[in-house]
Amino acid sequence: RETQNGSDYLQADETRIQVLKEDGKKAQSDKWMWVTRGGPPGKPSVLFEYDPSRGGQVPVRLLDDFQGILQADGYSGYGQVCRENKLTRIGCWDHARRKFVDASRAAPAKGKKGPPSKADVALSHIRKLYAVEKAANELSDAERYRVRQEKSLPLLNAFKAWLEKNASKVLKGSLTRKAMDYTLSQWDTLVGYCERGDLQISNVLAENAIRPFAVGRMAWLFADTTQGANASATCYSLIETAKANNLEPSAYIHHVLKHIAEADTLEKLETLLPWNAELPASKKVAQYD
Known about the structure:
Elements: H1 2-5, E1 9-17, E2 19-21, E3 31-38, E4 45-51, H2 57-62, E5 69-71, H3 79-85, E6 88-90, H4 93-106, H5 118-135, H6 141-166, H7 175-185, H8 187-190, H9 204-220, E7 223-225, H10 226-244, H11 249-259, H12 266-270
Parallel strand pairs: 1-5, 2-7, 5-6
Antiparallel strand pairs: 1-3, 3-4
Helix pairs in contact: 4-5, 4-7, 5-6, 10-11
């Protein structure tokens, strides 16, 4: 975690986990698996951490010595660490887009000649932002920054003007109005990705890293004890960090198990970290896109 927190850009996310035997908690109550994704150039890491709480004190603990840019969705639990560490917070367009997708799906079906719904219009604005990112995907960070300044910012300004003009025309409490209000309330963080070329438009790296855990949870359902939840966090950290470094996970785990008994100093342990492991990089590591 020291290496990860030494970078200047992290993504964070959290998901539910059921732990049956947690002191002071009912078996059916929600506990949480937190994930942070980032690291210095050439040393990406994905760290899972179990905590029974979703409170703001958890990211304060995890990001104790982190200074830089934190990307997350609109969850208020990240506010405390951003204030205390004076972090720059940027938002997630995937999260905002999902709210409009839900609103579009819930809207009454219209004929082919009918006007598009407000949710569909919003999605058309967001699609233009993602089209810019797709076109700039192979560019350098400096070139991507220039493209965002020239193309993304005008699109963002047009979208914000449309939201401000139309939000009051939509019924309060509807899914579309909630999506519009959320986007406007998060606007300052949502436009933050345009400030640098290396930043992501969304929290996609953290969400992709946490997705195998969410998929696996449907099979194994719960952890019995805190110790089991912590063990899961360790396993997922190793596997997802190996993938982030383009290593085949099973080959990396085999490498660690083969050499860890000989690692009797800190220096030897550090040679087992994924970015130091002497293993061939794999171009076919399974990732969630």
